[in-house]
């Protein structure tokens, strides 16, 4: 048994830290709030670091690492609020690679940028086969559908708030073909594709609402399990990114609690503040342990990934919400001012928890998985 | 990253499993009446059998009669025992806390005398630390020890919440030998024979109605000479800290051993159609599951550090906080979903629900654990204290004045 990071994983993480240290990403996050559209382009740095090809197979020119390694990078991105197309790129690159699509190699090279257009697999508890996506208005709506005309495929539907979609060259869309999910590749510039760029509240996050209206598509040859896996890897990446942000929130709040004095002593000596900081640490450590659960499952127990990823997303989302509010609280009035960095992390927390099915959606899924497993166990015992 | 057994571990597991399969029908039930002498005797005999098979105190070094294996092997044994539904050793306090305390702080003669019978279950131990006026503030113990002219130590005082004292052969007792020292200084750790004259054990019934813990009165108890002192005169606090460290470790790694698993609690509500109708109940289930899954992986993380020779620090206390609160939430959920029937006594869930409020205090109350982690792990400044730089006797006198005023 061994849950320690390998030397290779540590090197990858340290390299990510090194790359990101060359940019003042937190200042950029503020700047983008003041002047929309001014985010620095970190894509070239990401390509240099090999991140687009992280999970792409070697035969397609990728590095062929696992989901957990991508999560290590996501955590570093989250620490500094870096605006790197990543959460949307990695699951798309994975599907292109699994489907042996010709775009896999240029993706690994960084010449083409794909984005994953997420769809949530049906719940194991509920007896239907409905794949859903985020609607623009907060509703969960049915995934896009395929229309076949002979050998020509097209896809129609809407997906709201897709991270990293603006600027993508290719869309990897999950859609329903005669009741079954398929992964499709759609050219971002094709007729019938509208990519409506959006930013909300957290200017570091580039998103788009995607409207597909009979857009020409080609099918990727990947399994239903691979397609569901893309959803759970997006959950895991968002979880890892949130863990990184919690880490920073805690470091900032702890440092302040040691240097701010009231009534003759540091505020960190008061239990109300101390215990709140310890609560953030507790949540951080739990969330991080759940990232390990995902990493382990991804390598050794594929059937556990859905539950592990949902647990990680839920835990880290709750932790980030707590940590970002606590960061403001520990700082008192100054924490609630525009000039302070605390609101940048708060904005990140507010938007993140509502993306890609939402943190609440992950909680639902976790409960559904637990119930379904418990019920299967009873059935199995009955059969025996 | 893997959770698989190495070749060596797999072989060990197979060995352990084979032994258990052969002997499981000789084992007493895992739960029983801890006030029933026959049940205790059966558990003691079973610990002896396990010990002969080298399946208790797995990490105890060979020089103390143990198998001297790694912490992962202890977990393998725990898992196999749990899977077979048979109990481990009855003396968890001796095996987990007092044995290691003697190994670290004891004299050669003490190790020679006490460890082997402890391992074998021949002599069960209890922890005589807490007192009516010293729990969280353990260093405030008032139980007094004084030395007679012939070198015999005599102890007088009252201990409380002492688990297993009703059948223990020895107690590890923290007592004050010098009231003219500041409170952490004048403490000494003693081995107390529980059958000595002047020791009275009285059962304390808990919420469940059972008496697993006790009050212990010590009235001029002659425990013996310096051979009964562990860690030297005045070294009591250091010895107590070793125990507290092992206690933290036991609690941090022991969750699954107590049966606090997400699968068990999900199983307890899964049959109810209300879980399908009410999303509020599902969210509460998710809250329980997410916390206990996290504790599971925190435990595995710590184990892989231990296996690597690193001792996890005080942040272990956080696992205790997570576990206790998650299990309280689980009990509430199970009773909400299943209705008053879940509260039938004696019964699995009524027992759990009754046990958990006490577990909040046992092994360190939540605010104390948070203070420790905040100060020792995060480097936050301690609270101002009124009990430093004065002698213990002065401190007690001031507290009395404060009460009187
Ligand atoms: C089931 C069970 C088994 C036990 N077994 C044993 C045993 O075998 N041997 C043994 O020696 N002891 C045992 N104990 C005792 C246990 O260690 C104590 O109960 C525990 O340390 C708390 O001490 P206390 O009960 O005196 O509460 P107190 O210390 O009086 O605490 C009362 C309340 O005040 C709070 N509090 C105290 N100090 C502070 C502070 N500085 N800041 C904020 N809040 C504070 C506490 O959190 C608690 O809520 C057992 C307890 C239980 C419930």
TrEMBL record, chain A:
**EC number(s) from the headed UniProt entry:** 1.3.8.1
Cofactor requirements of the protein: FAD
UniProt-recorded Gene Ontology molecular function terms: flavin adenine dinucleotide binding; short-chain fatty acyl-CoA dehydrogenase activity
Keywords in UniProt for this one? FAD, Flavoprotein, Oxidoreductase
- Every copy of the Acyl-CoA dehydrogenase/oxidase C-terminal domain together lies at 236-354
Q: Which residues form the Acyl-CoA dehydrogenase/oxidase N-terminal domain?
A: 6-88
Query: Would the keyword Transmembrane be found if you checked this record's keyword annotation?
Result: no
Could you confirm whether the keyword Isomerase appears in this record?
no
Q: Which family does it belong to?
A: Belongs to the acyl-CoA dehydrogenase family.
Q: What is this protein called?
A: Acyl-CoA dehydrogenase short-chain specific
Native organism = Patulibacter medicamentivorans
């Amino acid at each position: 048994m061994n849950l320690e990071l390998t030397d290779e994983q540590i090197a990858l993480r340290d390299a990510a830290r090194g790359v990101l240290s060359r940019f003042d990403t937190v200042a950029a996050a503020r700047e983008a709030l003041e002047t929309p559209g001014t985010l620095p382009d970190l894509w070239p740095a990401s390509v240099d670091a090999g991140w687009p090809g992280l999970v792409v197979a070697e035969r397609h020119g990728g590095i062929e690492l696992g989901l957990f390694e991508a999560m290590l990078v996501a955590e570093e991105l989250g620490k500094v609020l870096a605006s790197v197309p990543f959460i949307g790129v990695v699951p798309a690159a994975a599907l292109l690679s699994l489907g042996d699509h010709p775009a896999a190699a240029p993706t690994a090279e960084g010449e083409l940028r794909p984005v994953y257009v997420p769809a949530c697999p049906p719940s194991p508890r509920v007896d239907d086969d409905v794949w859903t996506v985020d609607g623009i208005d907060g509703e969960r709506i049915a995934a896009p559908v395929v229309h076949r005309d002979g050998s020509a495929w097209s896809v129609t539907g809407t997906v709201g708030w897709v991270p990293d979609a603006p600027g993508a060259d290719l869309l990897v869309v999950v859609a329903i073909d005669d009741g079954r999910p398929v992964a499709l590749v759609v050219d971002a510039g094709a007729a019938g594709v509208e990519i409506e760029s959006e930013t909300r509240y957290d200017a570091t996050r580039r998103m788009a609402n995607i409207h597909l209206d009979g857009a020409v598509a080609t099918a990727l040859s990947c399994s239903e399990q691979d397609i569901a896996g893309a959803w759970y890897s997006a959950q895991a990446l968002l979880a890892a990114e949130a863990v990184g942000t919690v880490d920073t929130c805690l470091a900032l709040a702890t440092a302040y609690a040691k240097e701010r004095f009231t009534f003759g002593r540091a505020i960190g000596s008061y239990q109300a503040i101390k215990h709140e900081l310890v609560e953030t640490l507790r949540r951080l450590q739990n969330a991080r342990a759940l990232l390990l659960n995902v990493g382990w499952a991804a390598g050794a127990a594929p059937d556990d990934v859905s539950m592990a990823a949902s647990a990680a997303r839920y835990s880290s989302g709750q932790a980030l919400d707590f940590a970002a509010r606590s960061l403001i609280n520990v700082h008192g009035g100054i924490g609630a001012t525009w000039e302070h960095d605390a609101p940048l992390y708060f904005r990140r927390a507010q938007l993140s928890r509502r993306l890609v099915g939402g943190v609440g959606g992950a909680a639902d899924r976790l409960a559904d998985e637990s119930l379904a497993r418990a019920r299967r166990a009873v059935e199995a015992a009955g059969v025996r | 990253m893997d959770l698989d057994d190495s070749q060596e571990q797999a072989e060990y597991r197979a060995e352990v499993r084979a032994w258990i399969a052969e002997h499981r029908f000789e084992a007493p039930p895992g739960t029983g009446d801890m006030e029933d002498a026959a049940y205790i005797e059966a558990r003691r005999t079973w610990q002896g059998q396990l010990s002969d098979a080298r399946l208790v105190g797995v990490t105890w070094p060979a020089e103390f009669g143990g198998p001297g294996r790694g912490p992962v092997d202890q977990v393998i044994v725990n898992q196999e025992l749990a899977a077979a539904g048979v109990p481990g050793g009855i003396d968890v306090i001796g095996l987990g806390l007092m044995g290691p305390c003697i190994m670290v702080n004891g004299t050669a003669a003490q190790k020679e005398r006490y460890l082997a019978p402890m391992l074998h279950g021949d002599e069960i131990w209890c922890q005589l630390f807490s007192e009516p006026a010293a729990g969280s503030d353990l260093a405030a113990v008032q139980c007094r020890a004084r030395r007679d002219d012939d070198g015999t130590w005599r102890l007088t005082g009252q201990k409380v919440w002492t688990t297993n004292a009703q059948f223990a052969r020895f107690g590890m007792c923290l007592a004050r030998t010098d009231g003219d020292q500041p409170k952490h200084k004048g403490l000494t750790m003693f081995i107390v024979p529980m059958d000595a004259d002047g020791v009275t054990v009285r059962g304390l019934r808990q919420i469940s109605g059972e008496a697993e813990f006790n009050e212990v009165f010590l009235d001029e108890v002659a425990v013996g000479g310096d051979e009964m002192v562990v860690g030297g005169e005045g070294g009591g606090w250091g010895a107590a800290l070793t125990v507290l460290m092992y206690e933290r470790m036991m609690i941090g790694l022991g969750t699954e051993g107590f049966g606090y698993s997400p699968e068990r609690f999900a199983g307890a509500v899964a049959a109810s159609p209300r879980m399908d109708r009410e999303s509020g109940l599902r969210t509460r289930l998710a809250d329980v599951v997410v916390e206990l899954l996290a504790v599971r992986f925190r435990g595995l993380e710590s184990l892989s550090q231990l296996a690597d020779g690193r001792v996890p620090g005080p942040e272990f206390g956080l696992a205790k906080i997570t576990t206790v609160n998650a299990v309280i939430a689980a009990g509430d959920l199970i009773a909400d979903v299943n209705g008053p029937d879940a509260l039938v006594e004696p019964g699995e869930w009524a027992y759990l629900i009754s046990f958990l409020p006490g577990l909040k205090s046992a092994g360190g109350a939540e605010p104390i654990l948070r203070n420790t982690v905040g100060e020792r792990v995060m480097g936050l400044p301690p609270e101002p204290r009124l009990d430093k730089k004065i002698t213990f006797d002065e401190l007690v006198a001031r507290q009395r004045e404060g009460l009187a005023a």
